[in-house]
């Protein structure tokens, strides 16, 4: 019999030296050992029970965490606008599909899950999908397809998608899932195309814009240099288009612009037409086109634009001026070609608009000269180079009734610059507002100092009417100089009324209300619309000098003068004839009952000192006063 | 080396083996706090060995041979043929001074022929980990340091250490062994297994754990021990030491026993620092696994001991009070297991401690342990 080691030890501990067993001691030891064992067992049982509970709790917590994480990811996958699917790697059966995936395939997931591509798609597509799946599973490398057309689904073949498919392995490295994402990039690609189009096209006419034109020109230059060909660059400007906007407003102006652009494109016959801003266009003509063909095309364009434009019952007349530069004769780089086409355009406009001009070297010089002059004009004001001359106006019997104030520019190196050269420049850059005001002030100041209360007439530019507060400035000048408003006469051309007619009319009325007299200048040229005479009670009509000049030469001029005079008389408006140089002219006008005259016959425009006697100043007295 | 073994009990006083032919250099003794208090036993030993270093401490039970005894004081007198012995000791002022104390000891003991150090330290208020860290920082990793923290049964109230003087609280002693022939072998093993979920030390301060997974640790221990046993904490808490996981050094075995309980605060104080934020896991053992662990320690020590030994061999067994608490009458089993591994030719003495000092096999770095059996074998090589 083998005794338990512990019992043997307990027996030994209970046995005295004589071999006597102390039963009480033994029972104590054995009981204690049982107690220890029981306690150890209880402790162990309790520990195991608690441990299981705790592990279960931990497990449950972990499961809940996992569930939450899964729900979180599920909701992301479900809601991303990209189709996501997962398939069994072995047989390509669908096991997951999100909402975007349902839309992509055009069927609810219930119909797709558990099925293979063969059960879902037409044979040819199923074959492709199957091959792709096998390739990804076998190679383990993801498949990425970018920008391919949709092959399955209800959207048809009008969607572009990026798709990728990748393999997910299980814990042992064996293929488990195929995960795919399909992103519909149609909108993005469309947007990219639209942005690119916007960047290269003019929003109003949808024609290529300046940047697109520059690119095309650069390309054309490169090609022409390589192929040794020539080509033409046309610079176009719509004449009087600003008036269209002014008269009809911008919405109608925009429609007119679109209509004009359409005509250009139609007539340009495939040439590259670009709108590069405002009312400016450029055309790039095909290679090796003959000069006369370019010219005839340009003339066709002028004619097409010149035909009355009709938009929404609005009728308008605009014109077209064209400047042409030819590679390589007129320039071998883009900047020179463009500058020279512009020079030619400028010449075309200056020569009366509605014209076509080829670039000539002369133009280049003119253009540069013009820019120089414009630059000098800015300094002219500051450096007192501008002067006011006065030309007398008289009754037909020779009695002086007043003077017209005329601005003159005494250029330090060029000498006197003709007004018809620098006034348009000043109107172009707005300097006319400042110059006009200065002339007005000088004229009023001068007139106020005259002993005799003669009239003084001052020209106002249409630009002065459009910008600034003309009424206030005139009022201010009258107050400053102390000139009676009744002695001031302002001369306007019909250009003042062509712009914002209502505004101009209201301004004229207010000026007239101050007591200022209003004269219609240059009558007989331009439109000379009679409606202007009807719409405003002008104090005077000035017949243009060209009719007086030709009185003797052409019978028509006499007839026109006669007609104007009879019209004015009918309306009870006095008439001033300009440019009267001969006694014969004076006699004719007197015979026709013209009221007043102005011209070399009476006196040239001169510094006021020349006319001291006429204004009532005793020369001697003034000199020594 | 020659050993003279003596033991004392109240009935018959000191009894002992053969007198040594030559006076011993070192005397080691272990006894209960009550047995050592007052210094009577020390003075008697001093009378026996007036020229020797006499070093001892209070325990959680003395090991003499195959037996455990609480009311017996055990002593060994060692005479070395060539080995030199030096003893240093100090009263430690505060727990925070532990590392510096270890460094001072090491500087006093350091010498080119220093062959090993055996430490007996106060068991409750010293930071044993820091004490050892301070020593190894100065001595380097090649000098073996073993030993143990003094015990106080399972009461954990006060421990005593004496070195050439009466045993006193807050005292630390270290014995340096010098010479080429000194042999110093050791083994260290536990036999505990982790169980249950890993827990986060959510709040701690040095050795005091305030929260485990946001819960007062007393609640966790009460749940596992049951109300009845929990009432006997901290002693009963020794049944469930904590394994601390060092993420930086996963191989490192850090085991901490409960040393004190604050029921009001719900906190537990452990036998070493437990960093906040680390992961801890409860451990448990059964009689057989603990005995097997002790056997493993014995095997390691025996294997580490060189063959050509002259004279006697002494094995100092330092085992954790917690192990005795769990094993009860079966504690004998772990002593039997060590004895079986060491063989009959090794004299065994030792004590149940509040902390064991030895380098574990896994890291080889001298550290403080809880809940292990450590075996240190001292011998001299043949000339």
Secondary structure elements and their pairing?
The complex is a heterodimer of chains A (625) and B (383).
Chain A lengths: L4 H10 L8 H57 L3 E6 L5 E4 L1 H7 L3 H4 L4 H4 L2 H17 L3 E7 L10 E10 L5 E10 L1 H15 L9 H18 L3 E9 L1 H8 L1 H19 L3 E6 L2 E5 L6 H16 L2 E3 L2 E3 L2 E9 L6 H17 L5 E3 L2 H22 L3 E10 L4 E12 L3 E3 L1 H11 L1 H18 L6 E5 L2 H5 L3 H12 L6 E5 L2 H4 L2 H14 L2 E7 L6 H6 L4 E4 L1 H5 L5 H16 L4 E3 L5 H9 L4 E3 L13 H4 L3 H6 L1
Parallel strand pairs in A: 11-12, 14-16, 16-17, 17-18, 18-19, 19-20, 20-21
Antiparallel strand pairs in A: 1-2, 1-5, 3-4, 4-5, 6-8, 6-11, 7-8, 9-10, 13-14, 13-21, 14-15
Helix pairs in contact in A: 1-2, 9-10, 10-11, 12-13, 13-14, 14-15, 15-17, 17-19
Chain B lengths: L1 E8 L3 E4 L9 E6 L1 H4 L3 H9 L4 E6 L3 E3 L2 E3 L3 E7 L4 E8 L6 H12 L4 E8 L6 H12 L5 E5 L11 E3 L7 E8 L3 E8 L3 E2 L4 E7 L2 E5 L4 H14 L11 E4 L8 E3 L1 E5 L4 E4 L8 E6 L2 H18 L4 E12 H7 L3 H12 L3 E8 L1 E4 L8 E3 L3 E9 L2
Parallel strand pairs in B: 3-4, 9-10, 22-23
Antiparallel strand pairs in B: 1-2, 1-7, 3-7, 4-11, 5-6, 5-23, 8-12, 9-12, 10-24, 13-26, 14-21, 15-16, 15-21, 16-20, 17-18, 17-21, 19-20, 22-26, 24-25
Helix pairs in contact in B: 3-4, 6-8
Q: Would you mind describing this structure in some detail?
A:
The complex is a heterodimer of chains A (625) and B (383). With 625 residues, chain A is an alpha/beta fold. Chain A folds into 4 domains: 35-75; 80-188, PAS domain (Beta-Lactamase, 2-Layer Sandwich), CATH 3.30.450; 203-359, 2-Layer Sandwich (Alpha-Beta Plaits); 374-624, EAL domain (TIM Barrel, Alpha-Beta Barrel). Chain A has 25 helices and 21 strands. Chain B has 2 domains: 2-189 and 288-381, no CATH class; 193-282, no CATH class. Chain B is built from 8 helices and 26 strands. Chain B has helices spanning 33-36, 40-48, 98-109, 128-139, 217-230, 287-304, 321-327, 331-342, and strands at residues 2-9, 13-16, 26-31, 53-58, 62-64, 67-69, 73-79, 84-91, 114-121, 145-149, 161-163, 171-178, 182-189, 193-194, 199-205, 208-212, 242-245, 254-256, 258-262, 267-270, 279-284, 309-320, 346-353, 355-358, 367-369, 373-381. In chain B, α3 (98-109) packs parallel to α4 and α6 runs parallel beside α8.
